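Posting this for the archive.
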Amino acid sequence: MSSPASGGANATGAERDLGRGAVVGAAAGAVSYVLGYLVVYVTQSGRVEEGLSGINFFADLFGGHTISVWRGVGWVFYNAHFVDVDVPSLVGAPRSVNFISQSDGGFTYLYVVSPLLLLVAGVAIARAAGATTPADGAQSGALAVAGYFPLAVVGAFLFRYAVGDGGSVAPTLVTAALLAGLVYPVVFGAIGGAAAGATGE
């Protein structure tokens, strides 16, 4: 039978591992978000710039603000999370657009970028937390949400482009928060963490 002192030591060790997992989770989640955006930027900035050239020509011609490439890449990045971009319409309600699904299919691979990064993040978090079972690993890996969610919400505002009378082109906020910010890191982080826990000692 273990003594109270040893039980306290074990509890302290578990709390320490959990705390380390939470810190690593926030960092790994944030890194996954930033790396995901950078992958989209590196691979798609040229295509985005070309797609925006016509719009920016008229915006510049009539003294409007042109759309930055980094902002357009942000729209594609959220599209890769199945988050639509709301685009104002001249008549009626805004329409929702996913530039990836409406493309010729040449860059649908972007759909797997964030899941893969979050799987790796989940593994790293579970290893840092010392998870030795799939359940513990999944619980630890899901902590990627601590870093991913805030950036997903901030990004939905950061990539907003104001148009005319209060309208804007921007990722759909609710979907950006719930799907990109919560579901993605929790699900894929947990899967990666569970895999790490299953192979942990």
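Helices lie at 4-61, 69-79, 113-129, 134-141, 145-158, 173-198. The radius of gyration is 21 Å.
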